[in-house]
Design brief:
alpha/beta, 14% strand, binds pyridoxal-5'-phosphate
Length: 401
């Protein structure tokens, strides 16, 4: 009998991996499901980025293993990108580590810092990978709840309680996962919040791990936690080209922070992979140097889609904040549904439109749903049409009861 390792206990298959199978089944039955769930940009990268990849890949001398620390060209481009857009200084030689997407970085960080039984603060609602990576690394998750009435910011009094309780129980709180613009709520950060996070990390000697992949989407003021004075003492930051440059499938991300942190994570990561394909790194460097017009054009498309997403959510009688950032719209469901799962299932099975139930991001998301903006505007129009027809039928039936 072959058994899996204990570390997999309590770790399920990723929600979207399961759901996409179910959607495939529905499609085989002829449903033609419109997927407004997953956040994978459908638009292509800039043509100049593709051109660099094509030119580089044709060269004979670019196919070998690459440095574990990434190409100096890419690290310089990453450092310049941080300076230009976030006014943050990160040394390209010592304070940046290119990653194969930021998702792997979440695991590397947990494996680098958590001993068995160590605790990590994770946002609820939040990106589910923080939770699974902490558990896979042998750590324990301490949920901190984000609430709408608190602008989806951490409640620092609750955080203090969690720290006090852990210390009473003899456990060490080593990491805190934070992510602004926040996924799934779309909440933007304030400078005050960033300062409070740095102070909190300092006070309790907790490594604040900021995950920052959404700062360029529907947001006029991209910000980095590393731009706060003294942040490097306690902060490391993940970033990604997946969303900002429409390069999710390329798998290019980065970790930045104090040189000592980068070396620590590299000790783990260099045992996991053997660097990134050079043409891809050089094309990514090109992407990072794109002018402001690139972000402007991408955001024009998302803005139009967002207007349609609002229309769809109005039909479902959901409530939402119009100022949210990122490539999703997060919305509160009406009271006549028990949870976002119920609303999501009703819409999927009756109209063939898939919307993510907020509960997959944690219990605090149960009364919400999340609509992705990664589908063409025609798909939104078709979704609105289907949902309109369904509700008209429901109304008709109710009249004849
Ligand atoms: C909050 C958050 N962090 C990280 C990631 C992973 O991005 P990447 O493609 O860089 O691995 C995602 C992807 O959906 C995300 O939503």
């Amino acid at each position: 009998m072959i058994t899996t390792a204990q570390r997999l206990e309590g770790i399920g298959e990723y929600y979207f991996s399961q759901k996409l199978r179910e959607i495939d089944e529905l499609n085989k039955q002829g449903k033609q499901v419109i997927n407004l769930g997953i956040g994978s940009p459908d638009l292509p990268p800039h043509p100049d980025v593709i051109a660099v990849l094509q030119q580089e890949v044709a060269k004979p001398n670019v196919h070998a293993y690459q440095s574990y620390k990434g190409s100096p060209v890419l690290r310089k481009a990453m450092s310049d990108w941080y300076k230009t857009w976030y006014q943050a200084d990160v040394n390209p030689d010592t304070e940046i580590l290119p990653l194969i997407g930021s998702k792997e970085g979440i695991m590397h960080i947990c494996m680098t810092y958590l001993n068995s039984g160590d605790r990590a603060l994770v946002p609820n609602p939040g990106y589910p990978t923080y939770r699974s990576a902490v558990k896979l690394a042998g750590g324990e998750c301490l949920d901190y709840e984000l609430k709408e009435e608190n602008k989806w910011e951490p409640d620092f009094a609750q955080l203090e309680e969690l720290i006090a309780r852990s210390s009473h129980e003899g456990a060490v709180v080593k990491l805190m996962w934070v992510n602004y613009p926040q996924m799934p709520t779309g909440q933007l950060p304030s400078v005050e919040l960033y300062k409070k996070l740095v102070d909190f990390g300092r006070k309790h000697r907790i490594l604040i791990c900021h995950d920052n992949p959404y700062s360029f989407i529907l947001n006029e003021h991209p910000a980095s936690l590393l731009s706060i004075d003294g942040a490097k003492e306690v902060v490391i930051e993940l970033n990604s080209l997946s969303k900002s440059h429409n390069m999710a499938g390329w798998r290019v991300g980065l970790l930045c922070g104090a040189a000592a942190r980068i070396d620590e994570v590299l000790r783990f990561k260099s045992n996991m992979d053997s660097g990134m394909f050079l043409p891809l790194q050089l094309a990514a460097a090109k992407a990072l140097g794109l002018p402001a017009t690139w972000y402007g054009e991408v955001n024009e498309v998302y803005k139009k889609r967002r207007t349609k997403a609002f229309e769809l959510l109005d039909l479902l009688q959901c409530r939402y904040d119009v100022s949210q950032a990122g490539m999703f719209v997060w919305a509160r469901i009406p009271d006549n549904y028990e949870t976002g799962y119920a609303l999501s299932d009703q819409v999927l099975y009756n109209t063939g439109v898939f919307i993510t139930p907020g509960g997959i991001f944690g219990s605090a998301g149960n009364q919400y749903i999340r609509v992705s903006l990664c589908s063409p505007i025609e798909k939104f129009a078709e979704s609105i049409h289907r949902i309109n027809i369904f509700f008209a039928q429901v109304k008709d039936q109710q009249q004849y009861v």
